[in-house]
Design brief:
16-stranded antiparallel β-barrel, 2 helices
């Protein structure tokens, strides 16, 4: 089946048309996050210290209730860089998850630019998301794609949902699927990419609590289609709350997918000043047999609005 996808630059215009031509109950909100850190990068070749943007963003989202069964939805989100004002090369904004869609008892159907089901299938195993220790430096499949059509089901049975993605690119179409199952104690996801940027991948993620620790485990297999080369990788993370405001955490990632004999070890501490603001300290080391070792130490802050 071929899908005609609405390009991201047309989403604002379409959303405005929906708003002014449909008799609905509307809810629209503006949101964002500022996240940046002062970071030292140290390798065998050089040492640098600078302010680093950690995927700061702004966005607007809306829900237009048509009746008791259906709602029209939209979101337009862009990355910004508070450190130098340029999030994408010389551009001020870099597009993030931006879409229009409809939701109801049947689930949610949407189109635009969005994270793939496999990317979202990491759950929150990655405790260093959007930083230098993000799992995207180790594993394949952390894809956000345009020309995207997605479907998210309601609960098929208690705690179980599925997500289906069809993505059209100039190089061809690819698909991403996931099934998630959540109970009181365990959150799990099985995700599959088919021909995603030239890779087939399968990912299993688990999150569970043991005593006062939150533990995450991710296992992945990926195959490069052009060479039939297969690689494995895993992520292990553990988080321990020290109080209602603070926590310490550790993460280890290993794979040959992005770098030979790749390994990434990271430690972090976070303190919540209030419901919207936190500060953090991270130390991370990434090493490989062909690129050597790089150490990162950063002190940062996050503010959500």
């Amino acid at each position: 089946m071929e899908f005609k996808i609405i390009r991201a630059k047309k989403l604002f215009a379409l959303s405005a048309l929906i708003f002014f031509t449909t008799s609905v109950t509307a809810s629209v909100s503006f949101y964002g996050k500022l996240n940046f850190s002062y970071e030292n990068e140290d390798s065998a070749e050089e040492s640098n210290t600078d302010f680093v943007n950690n995927a700061s963003r702004i966005g607007i989202k809306g829900n237009f209730k048509v009746n008791d069964k259906y709602s029209l939805i939209f979101q337009a989100e862009n990355e910004i860089d508070p450190t130098d004002g340029k999030a994408d090369g010389e551009k001020v904004f870099k597009e993030r998850n931006t879409f229009v869609g409809v939701k109801g008892d049947f689930g949610k159907l949407y189109a635009g630019t969005y994270d793939s089901a496999l990317k979202l299938g990491q759950l929150k195993v990655d405790l260093f998301n959007d930083t230098r220790a993000d799992i995207k430096y180790i594993l394949q499949g952390e894809n956000r794609m345009n020309s995207f059509v997605g479907y998210e089901s309601p609960e098929l049975i208690e705690g179980m949902k599925v997500s289906l993605n069809s993505i059209s690119q100039s190089s061809g179409d690819f698909y991403s699927y996931s099934i998630t199952y959540k109970t009181e104690n365990i959150n799990s996801a099985l995700s599959i990419d088919k021909d995603a940027k030239g890779f087939d991948s399968t990912r299993l993620a688990l999150m569970f609590a043991v005593y006062k620790f939150d533990i995450g485990l991710l296992l992945q297999n990926s195959k490069k289609i052009s060479t039939n080369k297969k690689d494995e990788g895993h992520i292990f993370s553990i988080n321990r709350k020290l109080s209602d405001k603070s926590s310490i955490y550790f993460q280890n990632a290993k794979s040959d997918m992005k770098i030979d004999d790749g390994e990434q070890r990271s430690f972090g501490y976070t303190y919540k000043i209030n419901a919207k603001t936190k500060i953090f300290i991270h130390q991370s080391s990434r090493k490989s047999s062909n690129k050597g070792k790089v150490d990162y130490i950063s002190v940062g802050t996050e503010y959500k609005f």
